[in-house]
Structure formats: structure tokens, C-alpha cells
Amino acid sequence: MIKILFNKNGIIAIHKPAGVLVHVFAHQKNEKGETVVQWALKKFPKIKNIGDDPEFRPGIVHRLDRDTSGVMLLARTQEAFVYLKSLFQRQEIRKTYYAIVHGIPKEKKGIISYPIGIKRGTTKRTIHPQKTGSGDSKKTLKREKEAVTEYEVIKIIEKDGEKFSLLKVQPKTGRTHQIRIHLNAIHTPVIGDKLYGGKKNASLADRHMLHCASLEFKLPDGTGVAIEEPILKDFDKIAHIL
């Protein structure tokens, strides 16, 4: 269930549950279940005119993947939309996620800085194979963009001879699927990730185990705010049964 965490200065912060779409794309017209946009239009009808594409995604400043849970921001006014968008563009919103991954990163703390683009002939995002020393270095990506992700190992879990890690992750850029792609690139895919993690890894959880725990930024008057949503029960359950 979507719930409001913050509502001030035209800025709304919500908790988005796993399994909820932010908005429907053309290929998802037959999807069932209320989206974030549909919820927002019911709760705040005037939001219908807000944003750079209000007919498609009114009030939406950024997105979380369907199966990613946690804190998400919306704008109730055009002024708030422009302000939040500028914060994201200038990388002035501190984003903290938690992820449960298969394996243990080589370094306890690290920075992943592989550019992300779209693999030619597909719609799937990836990093250039040359960046990891695998694949054909002649291959190129469409719309390749800089992407930077910091991570820290919080806990190591061992189960039936296999190792897993709970990571604190802070993306410095906001590319689509960035955290999932970057963690897979260092051979620690997010468990439950059906797109990037492989079949065995995907079967370990009902959804990919990625949660946005906090967003920190300054309001227009300069006041700092930290909006937090603790790790959810399914995260805690997975961490204990692995």
C-alpha cells in the first residue's frame, strides 16, 4: 500500500511498495493494479497538470523499478517539479539503497563507474563489454551515459555453501536499472533479479531485493530534510533465511 511520508512545499514523498508500477508504458496497457500515477491523481487531483509530460506521468520527477520498494518523490506544483528536477540533475539528492546480492564484492567498499547504454538490437541496458574485459571490444552501445555507484558491504550471509551480502548502495547518477546493472557487473547480482541476475539467482526471492531507504536533500528555503523508510519485512526475512 502506498503511504505518504512527507508533504510540504509542494513536495510529496511516498513509500512505494514492491510490485507497484510508477506509470504504465505503451506495452503495459493491460497491466492490472493501481500505479503511483493513478494513486496520485486520486489523492491530489490538481497534480494532473504538473510535470514535463503531465498526460503520461503527471507529478513524476523520478522513478523506482516495479519491484524496487522505498522512498520516492512527487511534485504537487510545477514550481516544486522544476526544483526537484534540478536537484536530481545536479546530483544534489543523496540516495541510499539496500540490496541483497549473490556473492561477496572483492572490496568491502567500492565505486563502480561503468557507463551504461542500450545493447544494440535490444532494449536491454548494459555496460560496454570492454569495461569488464569480457566480450567483443568492437561492440558499442546506444546512448551510452556516465554512471557512478558507491557501495559498502554491511553483512555477509552464508547458506548451504553459498555466500550472499547485504549492501548499502548510493548511486551518484540516476540511470535506468543502474544499481542492478552495476552490481551484476561486479559479479554480485541482486537476488530475485529476473532481468540481470540469471535464472538461478532470480528464483531466490519473489522480487529483486532492492530498497530505497532514504532520500536527503534541501528544501527551497535551505532546510535540510532526510526522508527515510526502514528495510521492509520481506528484506529482513530473506536476510535471515538465506
UniProtKB/TrEMBL annotation:
<dbReference type="GO" id="GO:0000455">
    <property type="term" value="P:enzyme-directed rRNA pseudouridine synthesis"/>
</dbReference>
<dbReference type="InterPro" id="IPR050188">
    <property type="entry name" value="RluA_PseudoU_synthase"/>
</dbReference>
<dbReference type="GO" id="GO:0009982">
    <property type="term" value="F:pseudouridine synthase activity"/>
</dbReference>
<dbReference type="InterPro" id="IPR006145">
    <property type="entry name" value="PsdUridine_synth_RsuA/RluA"/>
</dbReference>
<dbReference type="InterPro" id="IPR020103">
    <property type="entry name" value="PsdUridine_synth_cat_dom_sf"/>
</dbReference>
<dbReference type="GO" id="GO:0003723">
    <property type="term" value="F:RNA binding"/>
</dbReference>
<feature type="domain" description="Pseudouridine synthase RsuA/RluA-like">
    <location>
        <begin position="11"/>
        <end position="185"/>
    </location>
</feature>
<dbReference type="GO" id="GO:0140098">
    <property type="term" value="F:catalytic activity, acting on RNA"/>
</dbReference>
<dbReference type="InterPro" id="IPR006224">
    <property type="entry name" value="PsdUridine_synth_RluA-like_CS"/>
</dbReference>
<comment type="similarity">
    <text>Belongs to the pseudouridine synthase RluA family.</text>
</comment>
<dbReference type="Pfam" id="PF00849">
    <property type="entry name" value="PseudoU_synth_2"/>
</dbReference>
<protein>
    <recommendedName>
        <fullName>Pseudouridine synthase RsuA/RluA-like domain-containing protein</fullName>
    </recommendedName>
</protein>
